Amino acid sequence: MNFLTTTEMSKKWNISRRRISTLCSEGRIEGAVLKGRTWLIPDNAKKPDDPRRVQKIGQ
Questions:
Q1: What pTM was computed for the model?
Q2: How far apart are CA 10 and CA 16, in angstroms?
Q3: Rounded to whole angstroms, how far apart are CA atoms 51 and 19?
Q4: Are 2 and 21 in contact (CB under 8 A)?
Q5: Residues 41, 24: contact at Cβ < 8 Å?
Q6: Does residue 20 contact residue 36 with C-beta atoms inside 8 Å?
Q7: What is the pLDDT of residues 1-53, one digit of tens each?
């Protein structure tokens, strides 16, 4: 299994490194491991949904 850093995942998922770190610390990215001060994320990890975004239907 290959692992990617938060910087590499931020480019892949098009979100900030800080947001990825938050998702990892909240346990929302399955398989993420903290190694020292760096999160290692499986390259096949699924991007979690963002509950902060509300879809407005019909407006």
A1: 0.80
A2: 5
A3: 13
A4: no
A5: yes
A6: no
A7: 799 999 999 999 999 999 999 999 999 999 999 999 999 999 999 999 877 76
